[in-house]
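Why this split exists: single-chain examples teach little about how molecules sit against one another. For that reason, every record in the complexes split bundles all components of an assembly together and asks for one structure covering all of them. Below is a record exactly as it appears in the raw files.
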Amino acid sequence: MSTPAIDIQAVHKSFRRHQVLRGMTLQVERGQTFAFLGRNGAGKTTTIQLLLGLLNRDEGAIRVLGHDPENEPLEVRAKVGYLAEDQTMYGWMKCGDILRFMAPFYPTWDHDLALKYAKDFEVPLQTKIKHLSKGQNVRLGLVLALAHRPELVILDDPALGLDPIMRKQFNRDLITHLQGEGRTVFYSSHLLYEVEPVADEVAILKEGRIVRRSETEALRRDVKQIILGRQAAGLLQEKSTVLDFRPDGDDVALTVAGVGIALELLHRDGVEHRVVDLDLDEIFEAYVTGKSHGWETAEDQPVAIET
Amino acid sequence: MLLRIEKGSAVPISRQIIGQIAMLCASGKLQPSQRLPSVRELARELAVNQNTILRVYERLVSDGLLEMRHGQGTFVAQSAKSNSRTVHRERLIEELRQLARQALSLGLTTEQIHDLLAQALDQLHKQATTAEASS
Amino acid sequence: MFSNQQQRPMRTIYHSLLWKEWHEHKWKLAMLVLVTVLLSLLFWRGEPQMLPVAVTTLLFGYSVLAGLFLGMQTAAGERGRGTMPFLQTLPVSVRKPAAIKVLMAWVTAFVPVLLVVGLAYAYLSSYNSDSATLTAMADSSVPQVVLDTWGRQNWLLGTGLSGILCVTSLLIWMAAAGVNRSDEIRAGAIGFLIMASVWVFIGILGYWAEEWKSSSLDHTVRVMMSAAAGGPSIGGGNRGPRESYLPFVAAAVLSHGCVMAWFLVSFGRHAVRPARTRGGRGKIGRIDWLGPPRKSQLTAIIWKQVSETGPLAVVAAAAILAMTSLAFWFDSGSQSRGSYAELLAGIALSVGFLVTVVAGMGVFLEDVKPKIGIFRRSRPVNVTMWFVVKYCTGLMVLAITFGALFLLAFLMPNGQRLLSSEYAGEQVAAIALVFLLVYTLSMACYCLGRQPIFAAVTAISVFFLGVYTVDFLIFRSLPADMRLFGALAVMVVAQVALTALAWLAVRNNWGWNIE
């Protein structure tokens, strides 16, 4: 059993009075593509900055590829490929120049490989960075992140601002060049439906803690909506994990995790109910904004029609 | 081979792909002994996780639709068409069950459901005969 | 291995960093060299006896401005462009880029000094001038402290060395005092505040030394002056007749060493927090762009501009008062001591020039940044209002602050002497118009170049070229009674042209991102 690529144990981090991470615990195994989800401002970038040693944690332990980023930040950065959210690079440098510039910083830099990736990703070497389109900018960033053959690649919301075609292309590149070569990928985003086809596992961050971690397809099987009468719902509340509710006259729709167990109970007691499959956006919403209590006294909410 | 993934749909991606490949086998668009794209190629093409594609192929192999020939790739099995029918039947039965559940919750009785099904079949037969007659 | 030789990777980290810093500094060096050489040639006008004055003025003016602006750039250039996070993620201690950066800034700073001194030497040796006349001129124009330190014969060398020490000291102090600020203007304002505070502190101690007639405190204060920003340029010139050089040199080396160490340790030490909420720190987010121009929108813009130019003006005013008091005390032994009012007016004018340049740059600092600029420009109805309101508000803030200072000078004892000349009214108008010109010029230069150093150097050099042109065209060509009218006419035309240029640049997003 090899050491995990990323090992975060009970990490706390606050900025002045605002506590961003409270007791976050997470492991990412080697070779996995791991997606890290949360709303904007939930602490995803802070976590990544902690992993790279750009910030110091208040409490807890972190190990990245066996190194502690607080004590050995340079070793971590040399072994990790990083693509920041909306990465601003030196606009006056040409793409070819920045590759040459970066080379000596990484002991494992392979310049042939860098040029090959630049060609594969269609990054024009003679163009200045300030003249690149957004998509080209991201692809250049990917070349820089991969050219030193890192074991672990950390991507902070890399598809931000890309149009759907570019996002698809980015996902393709990620799959071919990262998954294809057995690298570990740690990928933060707030678009669950974007991330699902690509990731092996997802973790959802809410209020500084991981509230759910599972394999992507298992998440769908595990979280569903059950519509049933209020009285029965009360019993269900005690026995299973309710993430969110929506009152509906005499009934209430509960979004439940571990739905298998819940359904067993309902079948056993012969309770009338209906099961609704949820899409990933709804599952995500339930985890990060859902209220698990209070439906007992809640009134019907105005109908929100979504197309 | 044309596959289409619907992101954000309630149906998991692996199930979508399995269903579509099974459909292609059943309809004969995929012929026995036809070579499928490798796991890598398909993953790249669809922008889907390689492990997911691997699981899809493994599932289809265990369902008898595909066979993996060592060193050569993945191919459509000889008995794919019939096997796929079985897979499809199972899927159809599941969908009918869902449909029945919905109909019951709408307050229809069992007889009414049978009637509706008979009507639907009738209409299809009529369409088929009209098409035959005009050709 | 590589198809194109130019695609070869760089050999070492230092190679990469030097290449990068050199590229980013070479245009600044070229500009500074060009400007200093041009101005030197203009000032001398072929008259050898003007040489000491010209060299001294040029070098000290240059040293102060270059030291401050290059320091600002060194401190906050990376953050201002948003490339600091990129630099921080490189697997190298961020001190190395910081060290190379300050080294290159220093080279950029002192090379023009060497050139000016070199040119002056060449000029002197080619021109068989009467050395006595020259030395006499040098005596009267080169600061006493420089002559005392380096010797009367070596006035040129002394001025050059003083200039280099001055620019080095200011560069190091400004870089350290302004380190990690979010843009160059903020770095400049805060850095200037810190440096001025040190001088104020020294000034207060000096005042006490004089009050209590304590010679040991007096000595300490003079030693401390070498440690402060710009202090080493005074050299050992303010040491007493029997005092050793050692404490002065030691103080200077020690303090500048510590300040430099502070810079290296602090640079890029903390991760830049992503600016999530656009509503913070008075940014544009608060203004509802989709709504019609309401009174509250105007108020928001005015408030925003006041909160940006205000602190700068207040800091400048405080610094001016502090410097005046210091100079007043320092000059107490000298016979040619002016009144407090005159000193205040003089210092307010010179510092005011600098502050106006910086304030002019800052008015549209955010607007020329690509993302915000595009957002704003897509709402054409508001642009002219936006421009006018921001322009006038910034101007009002400066006018009020400096107006207050000049009023204070006027009210002080002997203050009325400032306005005793018969042309007092025209003089005041002319000065006000000059400041307006400088403000608009600096603003236009910044909008067109989007780079503080470029803006400062261009604005200041265009200003001096303008002064020279006016002098040549008006004062030398026109008859006496037409001169004032002519000068005013030129200034008004220039003002209108520059305002239009700045407005068009902001409205149409003209400009290059000079890097």
